[in-house]
Amino acid sequence: MNTTDSSQLEGDIYLPAPAITANAHIQEYDNLYQRSIADPQGFWADRANELEWFKKWDQVLDDSNPPFYQWFVGGRTNIVYNAIDRHLKTWRKNKLALIWEGEPGDVRTFSYFALNREVCKFSNVLRSMGVKQGDIVTIYMPRIPEQVIAMLACAKIGASHSVVYGGFSVEALAERIQDAQSRVLITADGGWLRGKTVALKQIADEAIARQATIESVIVIKRTGQEVRMEAGRDYWYHDLMALPIANPFCCTDELDAEHPLFVLYTSGTTGRPKGILHTHGGYMVYTYTTLKYVFDIKDDDRYWCAADPGWITGHSYIVYAPLLNGATMFLYEGAPSYPYPNRWWQMVEKYGITILYTAPTAIRGLMRFGDAWAKRHDLSSLRLLGSVGEPINPEAWRWYYSVIGRERCPIMDTWWQTETGGFMISPLPITPLKPGSATRPLFGIEADVVNDQGQPVPAGEEGYLVIKKPWPGMLRTILKDPERYKTQYWSKFGNMYLAGDSARKDKDGYIWVIGRIDDVIKVSGYRLGTAEVESALVSHPAVAEAAAIGLPHDLKGHAIYTYVILRAGHEKSEKLAEELRNHVAHEMGPIAKPEQITFMDSLPKTRSGKIMRRVLKARALGMPEGDISTLEE
Ligand code: WTA
Asked: Are strands 355-358 and 384-387 parallel, antiparallel or unpaired?
């Protein structure tokens, strides 16, 4: 039973169907939430005890040096041990871990047994190439099983992975390789997208030419397109996996709970992307628990998270959490509407998908093709739906709920971030839903909305979204920049985690996330920084100065608009604008391609020379410019 009396709730309420809630792992929210907040360490210790440890922890939380919190201190584990090895001792050994469909329609499946074999072999290959604990291996791949295998193989031997999204391009990749000082890059000849191949290897070659740290490149043959292989540096994956060193037996390294698992670069307020660092123990316990509770994972589920492993959603909820829960997951390589807008619905029907987790932008994108494409498919296998990446607009919510979920499947609108490791604010299958609200914080999470002084704001008022206590899945630091970690997240309010989002809390305690309050733009759910787009623009010889802002966009949520001052000797023209847009796509990736370039003679700046993006935004939207007292003459 749900203890929240839904008749007392305000607004547009959707109650979950009894068939969904009857067998849910979690049957009650309020009491369990109160207990988890009263004793978070006890709560997390119980969750950690559901998994296996080589050695149990001495201390659940070490908070002696805030904000450098440590979890399960003294514990020895390896996330791969819990994600794979432990299932091999049970009937799940022969259960499907992964079903994969390529865009051209090719299908591959892996049982836990088979996945383990591939991971072991590749771990041995990596070891033989000198990869060891403490190294950071960069992975730049399409959505194919080898991407998952490569990540797990690194973790198994205590190396960290840094996955760079396959939609990023030359400079974005080069910068991330450089920051991580990676010596090994794992990539592919290409991948399939909308019936065409993406030239990943060629982009990788260009990136390596800019950054000299890479010594070896492992290339998966996916598309068979012509690629250049440099002797002594580049190796085919299938050649390496056929060598005797690719032995199918490999011990999983016993690691400290706080041993680094991965670095994932994400955009922040200023400058270069930040390497967000997560560790084995806490991240493992957190992602395992949140997926189990929110998507109510059961052994007979076929779970599909339609994100890319190159983003945090994919790290946590394609790769690690489903395997930690012994689930069967589905992965699809290509575009949602290829060759027709029913591709996704066709696959839901074909594979009997029970849980579908995606982003509002994808829902809006498919919604515009009308209901008929979904209606001709039997989607009755679906049990739960999910949304992530940006606030979901009520129209998209209702379409998702009625046309895809056929009014049977509740929508888990999960609010979280690269930094948080896993879901923070989210409904459970038992939660009465309000379209557009991520509802309430999960167990052990003290979320609030506060004003500039750090005081909770009254119901209905906008404020900063903060988390008041540490949690196991939290980032540990920013790679090589602990100071930035401190100032960015923990300095504004003393000892509260600043998410960088604004939000409102309603009378029922439901949280409504409004959006970013910094210079992060969410384009189709992808997180991009204005600074990165600007630096891509000024790397073009014609550009003297540039400013980027995000403006609302029907499909993408937000789109990038840029303002450019040209260098002397360059003429404004449509042709040059197009060239600049393509230049950004080449440097950063197609996702960062500006919607529009506006040539300017000057940019609004403060007297100290900082571009006032707020003013540009207000002008573009025809809104009041606000306080412009600091604007330069
Ligand atoms: C936004 C993605 C509203 C938010 C997992 C956050 C959301 C940023 C939601 C993190 C949601 C994510 N409702 N906004 N359900 N989920 N966001 O690091 O602005 O790529 O700060 O992590 O996405 O983006 P990131």
From this structure: parallel
The answer to whether the CB of 359 is under 6 A from ligand 1 is: no
Measure the CA–CA gap between 198 and 177, rounded to whole angstroms.
20
Average pLDDT, the chain: 96
Distance CA(334)–CA(196), nearest Å, equals 10
Question: What is the distance between the alpha carbons of residues 272 and 72, in angstroms, rounded to a whole number?
Answer: 31
CA of 516 to the centre of ligand 1 (A): 9
Residues in the chain: 633
E strands in 483-539:
497-505, 511-516, 520-523, 526-529
Does ligand 1 come within 6 angstroms of the Cβ of 313?
Answer: yes
Q: What is the pLDDT of residue 1?
A: 40
Decide whether any atom of ligand 1 lies within 6 Å of the 426 Cβ: no
pLDDT band of residue 625 (cuts 50, 70, 90) is confident
Q: Which of the four pLDDT bands, split at 50, 70 and 90, describes residue 212?
A: confident
Q: Could you tell which of 168, 263, 501, 521 is best to mutate to test the pocket of ligand 1, judged by most ligand atoms within 8 Å of the CB?
A: 501
Q: Collapsing DSSP states into helix, strand and coil, what is residue 602?
A: coil
pTM, two decimals, is: 0.96
> Is the model's pLDDT at 239 over the cut of 80?
yes
> What single DSSP character describes residue 258?
T
Atom of ligand 1 nearest to the CA of 520: 19
Is the Cβ atom of 308 under 6 angstroms away from ligand 1?
no
Q: Which atom of ligand 1 is nearest to the CA of 413?
A: 15
Minimal-distance CA residue to ligand 1 atom 14:
390
Q: Is the CB of 557 under 6 A from ligand 1?
A: no
How would residue 255 be classed by pLDDT, with cut points 50, 70 and 90? very high
Residue 365 sits at the vertex; the CA angle it makes with 273 and 379, to the nearest 5 degrees, is 115
- The pLDDT of residue 414 is above 70: yes
Mean pLDDT of 106-119: 98
Whether the CB-CB separation of 159 and 126 falls below 8 Å is answered with: yes
